[in-house]
Amino acid sequence: MKKLIFSFSLLFVSCSFQNKNETLIVILVSFDGFRYDYSEQLETPNFDYLRDNGVKAKSLKPIFPSFTFPNHYSIATGCYTDKHGILGNSFYDIKRKETYSYKIPSTVQDGSWYGCEPIWVTAEKNNIIAASYFWVGSEAEINGYRPSIYKNYKNGINPISKVDSVMKWINNENDNMPGLITLYFNEPDHSGHVFGPNHINTQLQVELADSILGYLLNSINDLKIKDRVNIIVVSDHGMVEVSEEKRIKVDDYIDSEDFEFYDKGPVMQLYTKNSKIEKIDSDLIPHTSIYAKEDFPNNFRFKTYNLGDFFLLADSGWMMYTEKDITPEGLTVSGMHGYNPDNISMHGIFYAYGPSFKTNFNLESFELIHIYPLICNILDIEPYNDIDGDINILKEILN
Question: What is the third-level CATH fold of 244-332?
Answer without folding.
Answer: Gyrase A; domain 2 (3.30.1360)
